[in-house]
Amino acid sequence: MTQMSGAKMVVQALRDQGVEVVFGYPGGAVLPIYDEIFQQNEIKHILVRHEQGAVHMAEGYARSTGKPGVVLVTSGPGATNAVTGLTDALLDSIPLVVLSGQVPTFLIGTDGFQEADTVGITRACTKHNWLVKDTAKLAETIHNGFHVATSGRPGPVLIDIPKDVQFATADYVEPTASKPRHYAPTVKGDPAMIERMVEMIETAERPVFYTGGGVINSGPRASELLRELSEATGFPVTSTLMGLGAYPASGKLWLGMLGMHGTYEANLVMHGCDAMFNIGARFDDRITGRVADFSPGSKKVHIDIEASSINKIIRVDVPILGDVANVLEDVLALWKQRGSRVNRKAVAKWWGQIRDWQAIRCLDYKPSQKTIKPQYALERLEALTRGRDRYITTEVGQHQMWAAQYLHFDQPNRWMTSGGLGTMGYGLPASIGVQVAHPEALVINVAGEASWLMNMQEMGTAMQFRAPVKQFILNNERLGMVRQWQDLLHGQRYSHSWSESLPDFVKLAEAFGCKGIRCDNPADLDDAIMEMLAYDGPVIFDCLVEKHENCFPMIPSGKPHNEMLLGEAETQGVIGAKGAALV
Amino acid sequence: MLNIKKGASSHSAYDLRDPNGEIIESHTLAVLVDNESGVLARVIGLFSGRGYNIESLTVAEVDHQGHRSRITVVTTGTAPVIEQIKAQLGRLVPVHEVHDLTVEGPAVQRELALFKVAGKGDQRIEALRLAEIFRANVVDSTLESFVFEITGTPEKIDAFAELMRPLGLREIARTGVAALARGA
Ligand SMILES: Cc1ncc(C[n+]2csc(CCOP(=O)(O)OP(=O)(O)O)c2C)c(N)n1
Ligand SMILES: [Mg+2]
Question: Distance from the CA of A399 to the center of ligand 1, in angstroms?
Fold first, then answer.
């Protein structure tokens, strides 16, 4: 055993956990740790501009690599600034290890300078958290933190380290010497349930694979197995916002995203199926619509790593507690062993029905020569970046839903968006985190102007660390999604949903020292996008789009899947045939 | 479960109706946890954060060497909510075991309470007489008051409280329910 200071232990433990990058911001209560960071070169530190940015960067890093993201913040305001990011990571099941400084143990409880009850404040927004009062327990707690953050359903953990604990010395505990932990979630599915799932695959007449973020979190193997199983069975596949890329958007079984802004075909398949296979999704309210009318005629399988997700919102017939990759492996093996049977005739008929729904072409929009339609901007972005090593992050709002609809993901870990919490301000820092993990890749943040302003200070971080992130802002000068709800549900009273007094984004880019591009003409768009892609450095692209476009299809909350609004026409009664198709 | 019952609102991004408007059951849960700092706050925070009810809660370390505590919670909710509560407790990192004593077979439940009853003359005699019937012990007495100690099911303690009320009941302190499954 080696004696060392708590601060040194932190760096040693991170190294032993394979950490390459830490996103952080210094302050009084973490200075000993920063001193240790200064004296080594193995772990890179990215200095952010706001601690919320650090947490979102770590999320972007984690989601694009499958590895845990690491954050270092000071006590008090440093820790409280991390709260939104922690909550975001908790809801989207992103593994993070956040280290916060704390006032020395003898000052805890005295309202000391920059003291906050960090473990109290973050208890509800972490998977677990610890206040370490003894240097002898520090290394082990950090190792345990990595274990908890990455096992079972991943999530953020926080370790609060008082300053005196950082200065004191103790024996360092290696990861392998840490005492065994009881926290070990079930990963193997129950064979009896797996057999029932296989039986359902064999007999299903109108099946659907409803996949979610759990497939991505389970690792690349899970996506491969999902592809294998769906290709072998020929069953249609849809995904939540979180699961995009697990099954390729170019695949012939792909129905597009489901849910509130999902495709017509995906939602009607969910509504009309007789066998629903939920793989790593959680029946979120954006997906189910009115629970009482959710997929009324189907038997349901639910594969989830966490017992609390099963039967939480929708009662299922076949609950399978386990890790997606493990379960799919077993399902495939058993199904093949029993002869790889499916009801081909019935499934072919089901596809006939699906083709009719697809023929509605629900993502068609009214093109314009005069203004850039946001959908058009994304179609062009997709076309001009197809085939490149590309990662997309988003902010929150209409642009996020359009990005999910019009950009195509053929691989997992390529799509980073704030799904559960819907955090405006996520996309810019997340894009930096992704770029840090993949320095050579093309990283684009599809943003709304309002969201983007929430963490725009992080452009400084992008400049400092030469992260050539492309900020593709669909600027509608509106809090577009809020405006849309006011349009549809609040009598067009647009209360405070204007983006007033916007900065000049091109000048802003210049001020940061990066490139600014503005485009407001559809005819110039391709060239402008090419200019953005060609630039070797960060770009702020101010894409001035149609201001009054609404995002469709849309299932208004509390409505069932078959009461979907297809487009403006729907409210104006122009596309009668489409409207009639919706019972 | 959401405790909001406003009915579906077309003005909300959320469907606010309670999907499980079924029969409310009472369950006694035994939760074995690491006795680390903050563990009780975690359990209580889970109940308040998710809108579950706590009727009674007791906690004490039961294994000093292993630093294990036993938390006994009496909670109410519909069957799916009770299932959720157990699953949510199970996902807390310091929780080792969750037992639903209400469904896992017969269990004994006991609660201890202290009652301060003040009075003179007949009232005082009557209080003492009833205490004997309930097998309550006198643990403190002055010329004008008693403190009774009583152990039993929560129902028995409720019944005793009802009887003491007109006889000068001043204060009650209750421990909450401790429970164990019957048999070996
Ligand atoms: C931090 C935060 N505050 C408020 C909201 C509510 N909200 C959701 S979308 C939206 C408007 C977003 O506007 P913009 O970023 O311009 O995107 P657009 O919808 O116009 O594409 C708002 C205010 C939120 N999701 N997050
Ligand atoms: Mg906008």
Answer: 10
